[in-house]
Design brief:
Layout: E1 4-10, H1 14-22, H2 25-30, E2 34-41, E3 44-49, E4 56-65, E5 70-75, E6 80-90, E7 93-102, H3 112-126, H4 146-165, H5 171-191, H6 199-202, E8 212-216, E9 220-226, E10 236-239, E11 243-250, E12 268-275, E13 286-290, E14 293-299
Antiparallel strand pairs: 1-7, 2-3, 3-4, 4-5, 5-6, 6-7, 8-9, 9-14, 10-11, 11-12, 13-14
Length: 314
């Protein structure tokens, strides 16, 4: 079965939507075919599917990445895995990205109708009036105050700087990566969800910066770039020792159509530079464009620490 990539918008603040997905009992119970949900651990849930006469159990484990508003999940039997991301596009509106893929037999894959119904139920659950920011989180953006964000960023900066200083030859690149990462996170924390974030769509001529999603795993780095309407021939992907560079262009094919038009879609060229960790294998990288999402997978080859025996010499 081909991987599932869906993106939809809901009338909820990003903090509320992300909190609801992080504690998903309400949403899981709203999915078709689910008759019971039990929380086994803080990040593990057991789902009961099907009729009472022939119930079926599935255990789902989740991993949260709060700084990215991203939740990765997988079934413990290894047949399904995926991720859900939340991106603010206004004070009370969010974009939700859903990715899922199956590693099981094709015969066990659900039908397109079942997948469609599940996605629609997921969207309706997120639109429910029961979804709201938890008490004590009011005035926070993404569940975290700006003061707490500044403290966390300062702590991470010190840690990254100390690590870089222990390797003088790598210090300049490490420092630049740290600055770029913190700048991207500060943009996501403060400006997204404000009118300034939509300037590229509203004012012609401003640079277009497609949204990105970065997931660093033990054996690879996966980067997803949201490029709806961009043709494969208009994309260019480059990998250097320290960053991934994605260039492209979205052309306005309706620019010559008669009549008046109001558009919030940004056309033109873009360039995104994404810092990469040490140990990447650029030769093994693969890029795939599907459903308006460019996904780049780059293998990681990190050497494990080697223990050197100490010998006594007289």
């Amino acid at each position: 079965m081909d991987p599932i990539h869906q993106r939809f918008e809901v009338d909820q603040p990003a903090a509320a939507a992300y909190q609801a997905i992080s504690a998903p009992q309400f949403i899981l119970n709203a999915l078709p075919g689910v008759t019971g949900v039990t929380q086994l651990l803080p990040n593990r849930y057991r789902l009961i599917l099907g009729p009472a006469q022939e119930p079926r159990e599935i255990t789902v484990e989740m991993t949260r990445h709060d700084e990215l508003r991203r939740i990765e999940w997988q079934t413990l039997d290894g047949t399904w895995l995926g991720a859900v991301t939340v991106e603010p596009i206004g004070p009370a509106r969010s974009a939700v990205g859903v990715h899922a893929e199956s590693a099981g037999p094709q015969s066990q894959s659900p039908s397109p109708t079942t997948i469609h119904d599940a996605l629609q139920a997921f969207k309706r659950a997120l639109q429910s009036p029961q979804i709201k920011i938890l008490r004590g989180q009011e005035g926070f953006y993404g569940g975290e105050s700006l003061t707490e964000s500044a403290r966390r960023y300062a702590s991470e900066w010190r840690s990254n700087a100390q690590s870089a200083l222990t390797r003088p030859t790598e210090y300049p690149l490490a420092l630049m990566r740290t600055v770029s990462q913190q700048a991207d996170r500060l943009w996501g924390q403060v400006w997204r969800g404000t009118p300034l974030a939509r300037l590229p769509q509203m004012v012609p001529g401003l640079p277009w910066n497609p949204s990105i999603e970065v997931c660093e795993q033990d054996d690879q780095v996966r980067v997803a770039v949201d490029v709806p309407g961009v043709e494969e021939s208009s994309l260019q992907v480059e990998i250097t020792e320290s960053e991934l560079i994605v260039r492209g262009e979205r052309q306005d094919e309706r620019s010559t159509d008669p009549g008046r038009r109001r558009s919030e879609v940004h056309y033109g060229t873009f360039t995104r530079r994404i810092p990469l960790p040490d140990g990447i294998d650029a030769d093994g990288a693969r890029a795939n464009l599907r459903n308006g999402v460019l996904e780049v997978r780059i293998p990681l080859h990190r050497r494990a620490p080697r223990r050197v025996p100490v010998q006594h010499t007289s």
